[in-house]
């Protein structure tokens, strides 16, 4: 009996109808998902095979889950790959995955509690361990932050240790003046919390769920904010200044491709907190640099995807300069201050000894307008 005639067969397998166009190629659902899986698989090969690392003993990796599409898709893909590896008679050494959820309601105003979503996460991905913590737990995990924030805002903020950790952090975040500075400070706080938790759990690396689109926007925004020297670890795979490896397994995938993958799996849509659609009525001056760059990359990426991809590829070729042993690190964001002017020499002023801030963090302080 002749096979079923296909009106638009998948160019990869030829056995099913193509439902989506992926970079000029019409693919079926199965082949589309295989493409996404392969991109992540190649990026995780060093950990899967334990290249340049001990092949025995634990290799724990931390996945910070923002409950957005990209990090949720990354968890789904890695879970499928780990399941496939465990089914082999002689699996590779592989890695263990620990998922960290920073309670969304503690980060974003108006965000609902993630109680039900967290329960579904644990049911959907039973192979992995999960932890959910609020943003203000940073005081417990990173005690050094207390001294930093007490000086960061100068006269604009007074840290009242008699308040709860939540109220203290809320007061500090409220003292940051501009929209760009607020987003920048929140990003630093989240990074510090993730790193502190990774160190507590003895994780070798952190797997960030940033797509190519997100990395391109972050590259442009960081350069505009004066954080260009941090690109070697904020958008590139490798060692961070915190002694923990940063990796971006979705870096070869556009956000639209991640969206399409998520639409294939109903269990994912139940876990994801959808992004709020950008408002067309917001004045540009009221948007942060990060939001502006994300809008720019998303709109231009639809027209010129290759150009936006080149932004990330070019940034990924950057190599960190050799850092002298005595070079200063920013007290707030942790970046190396290679151009601080004193080349790591001891500073004679009491104020600078107490708080060393890089150029970008200085711009985010309340008394400095961006």
From TrEMBL:
Membrane-crossing residue ranges in chain numbering: none
Entries under InterPro entries matching the protein: CTU2, Rossmann-like_a/b/a_fold
Superkingdom, taxonomy of origin: Eukaryota
Keyword Cytoplasm part of the UniProt annotation: yes
Coiled coil feature spans: none
Pathway: tRNA modification; 5-methoxycarbonylmethyl-2-thiouridine-tRNA biosynthesis
A GO BP entry: tRNA wobble position uridine thiolation
Keywords per UniProt: Cytoplasm, tRNA processing
GO molecular function, one term: sulfurtransferase activity
Protein name as catalogued: Cytoplasmic tRNA 2-thiolation protein 2
Species annotation: Aspergillus viridinutans
Lineage: Eukaryota, Fungi, Dikarya, Ascomycota, Pezizomycotina
Gene this protein is translated from: NCS2
